[in-house]
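Researcher: For the annotation table, I need structure tokens for Amidohydrolase. Please keep the output clean. Sequence:
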Amino acid sequence: MKSIDVFCHLMPQKYAELAMNESPNKSHMFVRALKMQAMSDMEYRLNVLKQFPGYKQIPNIVSPPVELFAGPDKSPKIAAIGNDEIKKITEEHPDYYDGFIAGIPFNNTSASVEEIKRCKAMGAKGVQIYTHMNGEAIDQEKFWPIYEICEKLELPVLIHPVGGQTSPEYPTEDCSKYELWFLIGWPYQTTVAMCRLAFAGIFEDFPNLKIVTHHVGAMIPMLEGRIENGLKMYGGRTAPELKEKLTRTKLKGHPIDTFKKFYADSASFGSASAIRCGIDFFGKDHILFASDMPFDPEKGPGYIDRTLKAIDSLALSEEEKKAILFGNAERIFHV
């Protein structure tokens, strides 16, 4: 059966070189990406994709986000070059790619809006943002024009976690130990971003916006009981004098219904139980196949293979399987 991978990554060489020239610390993330053959060697990558009949990708450029290393004066140009490069890569091999996901200079809202328009005209299928903008919450209304144009142009917004070893778990420490920033920090970042957007009224203001969350919706499916029942007492845990400041929300109706408006991908590193939990929470029409390729230990094919096998193991109906593997992607990404 065919499949469309909606959350996978690559790193165009030209973009990486330009980005590292702008990055004051020659970002470790760029160096790591360039050393991963399936990330930067496009011929090697194609050989990986050929191992999976019927499999296609809608890739994005791997983190770090452009706003992390370039100010608002330079980030628009760098983001545009990245989008031009990923467009070239995907256009050269239409048998393996169904378009691309655009990156934007999130620290420059007006430039982001213009880049989204340009990328839509170039054939972009969605827009990638991150769970925070250099520490700033992404639910601020100064970013609303970005969500507004994505809704208008029918471009799904993909949210990727961000944060590294300098984000400690304990406020008295300087760094995160044991790579917990990745293991639990990234799911937490995604969960926080989803909650903030939900309570800020993202779906009230933009009811037709599609938001795709990485790694099966992070912690949200496991928090169903807390969202559905715990939030029936919303505001009761906040000091009265702080209630207006800390709990005022645009969210209408039951919070659980709003959280189910998000989409989630299947990138669970091969955990069938995580995917099952996501399906049970979001429903079959809001789960999209994704692998997080090529971060697997096998250097490319591992997460694709494990995720496909995990979905196969769930004893889904033919209708459910088709929806998750390609039908939902065709519908919301217009491929």
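Researcher: And a one-line annotation?
Model: The chain has one domain: 3-333.
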